[in-house]
Amino acid sequence: MTYCLGICVKDGMLFASDSRTNAGVDYVTSYSKMHVFNPAPDRLFVILSAGNLATTQEIINIIQRDIDYPSGVDSLLSARYLFEAADYVGRVSQQVQQQHNSALQQAGVSGEVSLIIGGQIQGQPHGLMLIYPQGNHIEASKSTPYLQIGETKYGKPVLDRVLSHDLPLNDCARLALVSLSSTTMSNITVGPPYELSLYRTDEFQLASRCKFEEQGDYLIELQQAWTNGLIQSFSNLPRFEWESTEYQAALELNQIENPASIENID
Amino acid sequence: MTYCLGICVKDGMLFASDSRTNAGVDYVTSYSKMHVFNPAPDRLFVILSAGNLATTQEIINIIQRDIDYPSGVDSLLSARYLFEAADYVGRVSQQVQQQHNSALQQAGVSGEVSLIIGGQIQGQPHGLMLIYPQGNHIEASKSTPYLQIGETKYGKPVLDRVLSHDLPLNDCARLALVSLSSTTMSNITVGPPYELSLYRTDEFQLASRCKFEEQGDYLIELQQAWTNGLIQSFSNLPRFEWESTEYQAALELNQIENPASIENID
């Protein structure tokens, strides 16, 4: 399994991915799921991938080949808008899947791949898109500033509570690490090292690209701080009416009935 | 969709459920998914349900009928252990599903139901079990003190970070409400009112049973406190190395390269 996350805010974009890959539980390896393309000084793209590893690698290789031999073919070099780049990558994905589809179906294996592409082409705003296995795509927006692929559910609640279009990029990076580590805690098929890329709008190169190892100081410190923060937040939650001393005293004096009958819902 | 949660700790048990029921997005109604049986002074059971509503209602009706007419049939009255009660409920579930299976299959509808049963029979410890649609069951343990059915993923990370076998029951109740409201924020097919039941070991009756409305003061206060707590925890997370003023100063003086190349993972 995989968990990849793209965040698109006012100042730029943040890309995050885990790196655990498995074909069954006994063949667990580590692959980067983050692919950066900077084919010309006026454009930068980051592609995140979830799904069949062979399909992913072939898609990435074809994208690179089309940059290397650009004459007469669509490529990340020829795209004038981000949506054209997403459309092109979606077509490559469909082409690779269809090539192997009948053999994979016979083996009962899915060759599908979901992708996130984010980036910027000079003269255009930066943007983030999710490319479905079928090749079509949707775009992140101000009110939905993130897109996820893979094992998306465990890491979503914290995004829904904290993320906004105005969040600074370094905070987005911390948030992405929290979202990834929450997913890892609940699903062992998602795991570190985690990779992060940070892109500031109009720079056309990454501001930061880094990798966080499971036993690295920063990740251990972050996870400890987050768990402590949650436990602290939890201890500050409002008490139930029946926990108050007045209530307990009244209960003992039989001035009120017990809570089960008071708030009985039947 | 549905989200139900059972928690089994040292002091007793906590049961929680949402109440949104839908058959398609345009027939959304509200049903209780929490069923309490106290058929004799020496035993109490709570059953939570997720899945086909018709199957659920028939299962619950049969369980009640078998209590009302106990002669010669298995029932919640005749069970000597919790596992016997779970086994009995699993058999009722299978029987109801099989009765309607062929008609449902023709309509492409699933008649499956997942159940959680928790309770205590005098002389036995309290316990919590998940009954699969196939009728078999697993039990909660000290190291896995909770069981979930329905839309389980969004509400799991907070349980994994906070819950332990020693947590007091009122804290378990708050934790269950946080887990439910996180799920509702991320999936609109799970929604309030939320129901809670609290059982203290060896009491053979519920200590508390209550219902939290969406616009109720307590739920609004709890959600606000939790969101504020998360944002506070988030703001206390450790900063990245590249955010320090020393680092930024060194970067400006060209004493170090930019973070992208320093921590480049390629």
Automatic annotation (TrEMBL), chains A, B:
Keywords: Proteasome. InterPro entries: Ntn_hydrolases_N, Proteasome_sua/b, UCP009120_prtse. The keyword Ligase does not apply. GO terms for cellular component: proteasome core complex. SUPFAM superfamilies: N-terminal nucleophile aminohydrolases (Ntn hydrolases) (SSF56235). One of its GO terms (biological process) is proteolysis involved in protein catabolic process. This is 20S proteasome subunit A/B. It comes from the Bacteria.
